[in-house]
Each structure stands twice: as C-alpha cells, then as structure tokens.
Design goal:
The chain is mostly helical. Helix content is 94%, strand content 0%. It is rod-shaped and about 70 Å long. The N and C termini lie far apart (68 Å).
Length: 47
C-alpha cells in the first residue's frame, strides 16, 4: 500500500464524511422549518 493510494483513500473517506455532515445539517434545518410551519398553521387555525 503506497502513499498515493493512502491519500486517495483518505480523500474519499473525507468526501463521504463531509457529504454526511451536510446531509444531516440540511435534514435538521428542514425538520426545524417543518415544525415551525406546523406550529404557525395551528396558531392560524385557532385565531
């Protein structure tokens, strides 16, 4: 196993990790937005 293969391997791992972090972050933001939206719809119906 050479150094070049190692760099490619770690590059791939890093890319996957970054993609997962971004995906989790976006999912969190969307869920928060949906909750806020649902709460707003409930208060709209009450008034």
């Amino acid at each position: 196993m050479g150094l070049h293969l190692d760099a490619v391997f770690w590059g791939a791992i890093l890319s996957v990790l970054i993609a997962v972090v971004i995906f989790v972050y976006l999912t969190y933001k969307v869920l928060k937005l949906m909750k806020k939206d649902a709460a707003r719809h409930q208060s709209d119906q009450q008034s």
